[in-house]
């Protein structure tokens, strides 16, 4: 990929990944996960971000740049499962030049991955790693279409897009499994394949 194309895809990734906030019972808000634009009007987010929400809205923002709130009735789940549900929310107006490319290429163990995320609801962060397995079954899940990778994530990273080396989405981050830390190993991270 030419350098100019690579840089433009990185810029698009930075513009397209957003933080999710949700209304709490006391009407305040709390950042809860990471989301991303698949088109300029549609945001993909982890379905658990709206589980047990007692408020009336879900919000998306890039700190210091823009912010939008939508009624929970605008958000719906595209797939089911306790932690694998993917949600979608349509915004009333397009949010500029946003939207990420999905990769149609196959991925192999050892391939580079990058994750743009909002760990712990704070500012955006970027982590790099490699694919460990392309046919991993995530702990506690009956879905087999997971990638396992070693890029760092934290709470609040759920829903973040997992990119290949050309900044195309290959998976959606859902789970960090930390039993390995007790054995002195890196925790495993799992993302649902875009083919799932």
What does this protein look like?
The chain is mainly beta and 196 residues long. It is 9% helix and 41% strand. The strands form two sheets. It has a seven-stranded antiparallel sheet. Strands 8-9-10-13-12-11 form a six-stranded antiparallel barrel. The protein is globular, with a radius of gyration of 16 Å. It starts with a helix and ends with a strand. The model has no long low-confidence stretch (mean pLDDT 78).
Helix segment tally: 2
Please state how the strands of the largest beta sheet are arranged side by side.
5-4-1-2-3-7-6
The coarse overall form would be: globular
**Low-pLDDT sequence parts:** none
Assembly type of the shown chains?
A: single chain
End-to-end Cα distance, whole Å, is 26 Å
What is the count of β-strands?
Answer: 13
Residues in helix, %: under 10%
Secondary-structure-based class equals mainly beta
Order of secondary-structure elements? HEEEEEEEEEEEEHE
Radius of gyration: 16 Å
- Major beta sheet summary: 7 strands, antiparallel
Portion of residues in beta strands equals 35-45%
